[in-house]
What we know:
Elements: E1 10-17, E2 20-27, E3 34-39, H1 61-75, H2 98-107, E4 116-117, H3 118-125, H4 131-139, E5 152-153, H5 166-175, E6 180-182, E7 185-186, H6 192-195
Parallel strand pairs: 4-5
Antiparallel strand pairs: 1-2, 2-3, 6-7
Helix pairs in contact: 2-3, 3-4
The structure holds a DNA duplex (13 and 13 nucleotides).
Amino acid sequence: MTYNNYWDKRYWQQKIWKYGKLLLIWQESVTDNGLWQLFFPGCGPKDLPAEQQFNPLTCSDKLHWKEKAVDKLLHRNSMLKLPAVKKDLFCGWQRFTPFETDVLARLAQVPAGRVISYGELADWAGYPRAARAVGRLMAKNPFPLFYPCHRVIQASGRLGNFGGGKDLKRRLLENEGVAFSSPEKISPKSRLEETLKLP
DNA sequence: CCGAGGGCTTGTT
DNA sequence: GAACAAGCCCTCG
C-alpha cells in the first residue's frame, strides 16, 4: 500500500507533553529522513491512517535514534537550553525558500526567556519591513518549540497570534521566565533588543 | 494611557 | 498578477 500523497513515507506519532498531546510526523526516506513536522495539541491532520503509525521496531536505526533524541528534548524542560537546535534531527529543508531559511536561522538564536517582535526578527534576518511575511512563516513553522516561534510577539508588547492558541503561548513564555506587565502584555525587560544590540 | 480604524508593507501561493 | 496574512505605524477619540 503505497500513498501518492502526504502519507507517502510518513508516519505519525503522538507524544504526551507537559501542555497536552503533540502530534509528530516522521519521514522515512533514504535521501532525507527525520522529523517532518510537529503539531500542537488540537492541530494537524484529523484522521491518521492506522497503517502509517510510527513504529520504532520497524523503522530504520537512524530514524529510531532521532526519535529518541527528539523525545528527550521534549520531555525534560530542556527546550529551555535552545538555541541548541540540531538541524539533523529534522528533514524536508528543501521545502523552504531563502527568505524562510534566513529567518528561521535567526529565530533559532532567540534564547529562552527573551522575546523579539515580528518586525525586529525580519530586520535581523536582513528583510526590513517584512514583519508580515515573518508572521506568515511563523504560522506555518513545521518545527515549533524547536524553532521557537512562541518567542515572537507584536511590536506593541502584546502576544500576537499563535497556532496552538494564545493561552499556550503565554504559558510557554511564563515557563521560560518572561516578565508580563499584564496577562496580554510583555514587559520591555524581556525583549531581546534590551539585551543584545541587533547587528 | 489605551483602542479602533485605515493605509502601507512584505514574501508566498 | 492578484489575493492573502500569527504585522506596523500613525491618527484620532
